[in-house]
Design brief:
With 411 residues, the protein is α+β, with helices and mostly antiparallel strands. It has two domains: 115 residues, no CATH class; 207 residues, MetI-like fold. It contains 18 helices and four strands. It has a four-stranded antiparallel β-sheet. A hairpin with a 2-residue loop joins strand 1 and strand 2. Helix 7 crosses helix 16 and helix 14 packs antiparallel against helix 18. The two termini are 35 Å apart.
Amino acid sequence: MISLISRLHRRGQDRSEQYFTAGQFALIRARFLRNTTGVIAGTLLSALVLIGFFAPFFSPNAPGIEGANPDYRRGAPQAVRFCDANGCSLRPFTYTYVRETPKLDLSSLAGGDLSALDALTASGGLNASAQSRYVEQTDQRRYLQFWVSGWEYSLFSIDWLGIDIRSDIHLFGVEQGQIHLFGTDEDGKDVFSRTLHAIWVTISIAVVALIVKLITSLLVGGISGYFGGRVDAVLMAITEAVRVIPPIPIYLACAVALSQIELTPVQRYFAIAVMIGALDFTTLGRRLRTHILTERNQDYVLAARLSGASTGRIIWRHLVPSFSSYIIVDTLINFPYVILAETSLSFLGLGLTEPVNSLGVLLQKAQDPDIQQNMVWQFAPVGVFVLLIMAFVFVGDALRDAADPYSERRR
């Protein structure tokens, strides 16, 4: 018993020593893992990022017009079942869907009887939605298959190295035809596949924008804080000029300017990412400048100067790393705001456009009155967008609390 108590005591001492000798990032990680909400949101966010990155593998159909299903335009989501009136099955299945053709009595119309046309008009048979009604053939099951061969996609590609690894393996599919879990649009394109591809496009734009923002903030804040004087006054005047102007009008003006230039979808993609990142440096730049103004007179900076270190080395190897935890947390917290900026521009028709798949493009389509009345399943990307934003917000809040060394004392 005494030996057991002594072992527990030593183990507690070891944990105490590990806590007081742990590095800054180890402490942040430990505090983050104790936040249940942050861990759940981080797991969900990791799953969404993983699905978005490997979207071609998880998508049963090609997201573009090449993967459109001409026999299932404006089709509703196809439910996956295990049981029906014919019995249950261990294998999931869906049904075969056949277009319902409105009946028109042409012989009556030829004889001058317009009652058949009146009946057809009253039934809504001439509407686009009525012409795209599909009937489930409950006696024709289509079983889901996993690890199936389908349309070919690029698994890993580096153009400038000539590397292009391609595959045609997908997570799931059906025996015959196509499966549409989120339905299809007016062209027959699969909404589920488009949504998965849109996740990665939107996240990658946020990554590029935040890299540009980080570089701009480090340059402005580092140079302004280290040199001070007139350099600081000029850079802070430019920063304040950008800061006081509301961001949305600036984004709109830049987007209108881009619309006057002939750009490919890829070029427009990078132009919007750089534009968003370059105009969002003010807050982080000012905080970094304040930190460096405080730290530049410390003993370790003086020692680096006396040892012959250059100005650039002092800033990037000594001053900036001392602020690295805040930089990382601030960058992650700003992810949802950058995603909102891209989505807002695309929603207004000034950002990315068809055929690029992004959440903003899909949301922009959802404002069509025809979709709102007859194809409500195209609002599925809205739910994915909200889920992605909320996951980023909760992860950012958890990281902010984990990076605060006084957060535990306030509880």
